[in-house]
Amino acid sequence: MYVKYNTPLNDQNCAINCGSWGGTEPQGQLTDVWTVTPNLVSEFRFSLSRARGVATVNNQGQGWPTKLGMTYAPDNLFPSMSMEGALSTSIGYTPFPPAIDAETTFVPSEVMTWVKGKHILKFGGEFDRWWVNTGWGTATAGAFDFSGVFTQNPADQALTNGIPTEGEGYADFLLGVPSSWSVSINPETGGRMYSAQAFAQDEYKVKPNLTLTLGVRYTLQSGWSEIHNKLSTFQPNIVNPVDGSLGAMWYAGQNGHNSLTETKPAIFSPRLGFAWAPGKDWSVRGGFGIYNIIAGQNITAPAQAWGQGWVPSGSMTYDSSTAAPLFQLSAGPPPGKLVYPSNSTRTPDLLNGTDVNYSFYNSPIAYTEQFHFDVQHELKGGVVLDVGYVGNRGVNLQYTRDLNQVPANKLGGGQNARPYPLFGQISAAYFDGWSNYNALQITVKKQLSRDFSLQANYSWAKAMDTLTSAGWGGAGSADRVGYQNASNPAGNYGRAATDIRNMFNGNFVYHLPFGRGKRFLQQGGMVNAVAGGWQLSSIYQIRSGLPFSPFDSTNNSGAMSGTFRPNQVGNPRSGACPSGDRVGTINCWFNTSAFVQAPANTFGNTGRNIVNASNWRTVDLALLKDFPLAQLREGMSIELKFQATDVFNHPNLGFPERDIESSGFGQISYANTSRQMQLGMKIVF
Hints:
Elements: E1 4-9, E2 19-24, E3 27-37, E4 40-57, H1 64-67, E5 80-83, E6 89-91, E7 99-116, E8 119-136, E9 143-146, H2 169-175, E10 180-184, E11 189-207, E12 210-221, E13 225-226, E14 232-239, E15 246-251, E16 264-276, E17 282-292, H3 297-300, E18 313-317, E19 356-359, E20 367-378, E21 383-397, E22 401-402, E23 426-429, E24 433-449, E25 452-465, E26 494-495, E27 502-511, H4 525-531, E28 534-543, E29 547-548, E30 567-568, E31 595-596, E32 611-612, E33 616-628, E34 637-645, E35 676-684
Parallel strand pairs: 5-9, 19-23
Antiparallel strand pairs: 1-2, 2-4, 3-4, 4-7, 5-6, 7-8, 8-11, 9-10, 10-18, 11-12, 11-13, 12-16, 14-15, 16-17, 17-20, 20-21, 21-24, 22-23, 24-25, 25-26, 25-27, 27-28, 28-33, 29-32, 30-31, 33-34, 34-35
């Protein structure tokens, strides 16, 4: 399979502020099945998957720096410029910077299946190889801000309590005097990792109505490395040359290794299960297994680990104590302000004073323990009822947080109270999080008979974790609260962002009983052409609301990182808001009086995800009609389809304002769904 895509961002006719994201996604697989003997089969596969995306901006390579007289610009792009004040405007800000993301995976595998008496034995393995070449912001001509400070009253330029209102950024731009300038160019990096896996499984038919399955999987996983060693991380045991304290930067190739984490050579994951048929139309199944979570590039380390220490960068900001211009736009920044790192400058203290990352070299492997038990029974009419328990326990889950947060006993102590005062935030990829999921799941299913099929599912569940993550974003990417106290993971354990206590969903398909071969209007000809061949189908969902917690955007905790939470002083689920609106309305979804701002230099006591958002109810409907056209061509027909999403137009309300500092605190200002209808036609031949 081969897919090519191109996504324009903004108007492609514009020459400066627009761009596009395009790429290819080729995939392929070779399979060879060899019947060695009547009871021994070999299956070899080799798969290749590649996704390559490139972000380009329209102003790249057009000679703008030369046209603007800015020959000092590091790259051939239009610079990003913003002007503040009454005539505020900006130019050169594209939807994204120049970027590349090319991910390639090779997977050869072999599986042998051997039937031996009452045993079906399977054993085999695979070798996975990942190449991830990525770079976000690989080129820039610099960012310039014109605040208006140089066109205000000269007597006011040295004021430290903010910029007076009489200055105009556009006027500063005409004078060519920026108040700030910055450059940061992220290099393209090539992440590399491999994993070798092997497994053995025995499916043993103990009795005609009882089968046991036993198995184990072995995994070897390497650490992530970079093809040119453009990889770095903070290490707490490296001496910082500035003052001799511990805590400085490690670069790939130093201290005897070039990967962020060590290779894990012996990971064993057992699995077992059973299937038992105690009687006619009855089935009982259960199982347990441990499943490793392969450490992807964004899981092992934050994005800044890749290429940090190789980033050409520079910045200058207006200093009110001198009130001097930074430089003239035509001349550019003074020599030496844009620094290109080299081997000689890439020292342990190179990134002092900045935010850095920390990947533990001996990080444990994350895994889940999954278990289930269910009973299935076929009722009259071909209806199957399935009742089961499903559990999932996550261990060693990613819980990235600031290693350099001010400790709870030193809140308010400022930069010097940090564990490593020579650095800003240290984004540490800890793997000490955990999760639990337990659910009762009930399914009713009816296969198509008498023109009707149905599936209905209900779950009563509880999901708890220390931080909710999802997909590419890494740790906390799906969490609506985040952490408050980095030193206390247990204090963040609570309802997961995905916790849905009650869920009812399903679908049905009904072939209407009209037309030839049906119960009514069985005449052929025009009657069948109009009344026959209609099909009604629906997908529906009713569920509990997702959880959330209030937060305070003014972080007065003194921790210098994390999410500041208010103090809870009442029940948010009862009473009325100060406005007089009762709880549960769009103007008062929860009792806002139940939360107050926590005192400065303390952590708030509000728990994580303690309030529910609105329940969700939606029904989608489709009506389909087939018009046979056999008289034109055998097998030819026209399919007419009417579709409606959220057919009852029920407003599924969004989250209320959660910021205690907002004037709309506790109020809901948007809905997620609305009825949409469409009519389509398809010709089949």
